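Exercise 7.
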Amino acid sequence: MKIVCLDALTLGDIDLSIFNKFGEFKSYDNTSNLDPNLVIERLKDADIVIVNKVLITKEIMQKTNLKLICISATGMNNIDLKAAKELKIEVKNVAGYSTNSVIQQTFASLFTLLNNTIFYSDYVKSGNWAKSEIFTNLDKPIVEIYGKKFGIIGLGEIGQGVARIAKSFGAEVAYYSTSGKNKNDEFKSISLDEMLKSFDIISIHAPLNENTKNLIGENELNKMKNGAVLMNFGRGGIVDEKALTKAVDEKDIKAILDVLEVEPMIKNHPLLNVKNKNNVLITPHVAWGSKTARDLLIKKISLNIENFLKNR
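Solution. The predicted structure, written as tokens, is:
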């Protein structure tokens, strides 16, 4: 087998040598979507491709001899699945590898904002605490989760994990199912309208699809309580980022984002120019990427290839 990884940089400092056991393995740090001919050239004679964000279109499939597409992620929107089925090319993704990593990052980000951790850390590092006449500093508010209404949009495996931890902190937890099909006896199901109007913290853990595209726009943001926190650890495109920028400045809405509609972040993005910068925390799509999660991802990709070869 000839195996090609098109965007190894998206996996970070992970050892990919495990794939050598299947045959000839070639890895590229990055492959631009702007040049499909380069993708075709790099996949020349390849049997298996490992890919995260590179588009694998019908044209690319038709001009290569691919037998298996391994997605180094859960989302499959970068692959023309219809064309793959027509051409009898198997497509395998990896689910569940990053659940704990995303849950941990959700609360790490929330605590950073609610506890004003960066402000207090900078206060100490600047030497100002050493100059203080008293033992403490309470210039910025510390907000507890206890007693707050905590809403989850998308109660899948990650959403359930976030819900349980929020509950353990004493929050009142409820969820909104974007498909309308998700039933859970552990937590209360409510409408999106009710959640927006009355909840203090809303955390998104849903995929991007026809039910969630632009789910939170200007109209929805206007319904949110002043000072409420909106978090998106699902997918970019669920929240209207321009409308969110306006809400942060005009309604004192706090925003925590790990995903954006366009990644990497575009230059001069509206959220970079908000007046209330302390009310915004943006991380570069890192929630999925703990070392443990990435090791598990590579292991599961390897198993996908192994199972494919066994069943040929």
